Automatic annotation (TrEMBL):
One of its GO terms (molecular function) is uracil phosphoribosyltransferase activity. It catalyses: UMP + diphosphate = 5-phospho-alpha-D-ribose 1-diphosphate + uracil. It comes from Uabimicrobium amorphum. This is Bifunctional protein PyrR. Belongs to the purine/pyrimidine phosphoribosyltransferase family. PyrR subfamily. It comes from the Bacteria.
Length: 182
């Protein structure tokens, strides 16, 4: 399946503005925060949010990463079920922590559900919230982001492509569509 660019929905300036807003909203709701970036693009987003939250004066914020592999929210043909690989966390016990899961795009909710299940293996957090850059709808589970950068209603045939400087060399978010071979 070949995808072609349909439209750009966010550029680097807009992504930065969204992250500033999300950082402020997160700090308003929590004090001792553990940001958990979901590999792949959720990790650089979490690192950027950590810097912004620290700049807002909240030094009680830490970073962890979780790797849910062989499945991407917007490319469902990769695998039927997400597969947990690794949870790199600065603490063994997550009891009574305020956790904010960070991902680039939420689609069906399966990746987030897998991440939550793994987090629960390390104790009962005070709360788990979800922050995403893009919410594209089409949920299969009752999972909604608490903090969403942008709501982008899409058709199931469309895909969201998030590009970040740390991985792709530039910051932008695109809507992609299946290319017709004519």
């Amino acid at each position: 399946m070949q995808l072609k660019e349909k439209t750009t929905i966010m550029d680097g300036v807009e992504i930065n503005q969204v992250l500033n807003r999300l950082a402020a909203e997160i700090v308003e709701q929590s004090q001792e925060i553990l940001l958990v970036g979901i590999h792949r693009r959720g990790v650089p987003l979490a690192k950027r949010l950590l810097t912004k939250i620290n700049n807002l004066g909240n030094a009680n914020t830490n970073l962890a990463t979780i790797d849910i592999s062989f499945y991407q929210e917007d490319l469902t043909q990769v695998a039927e079920q997400p597969i947990f690989k690794e949870f790199d966390c600065p603490t063994e016990d997550l009891s009574n922590k305020d956790i904010v899961l960070i991902d680039d795009v939420i689609y069906s909710g399966r990746t987030v559900l897998t991440a939550i299940n793994e987090i629960m293996q390390k104790g009962l957090p005070n709360k788990i919230t979800l922050a995403v850059l893009v919410d594209r709808g089409h949920r299969r589970f009752p999972i909604r982001p608490d903090y969403a950068g942008k709501l982008v209603p899409t058709r199931r045939s469309e895909h969201i492509k998030v590009m970040l400087e740390e991985i792709d060399g530039e910051d932008k978010v695109l809507i992609m569509e299946v290319e017709n071979d004519e």
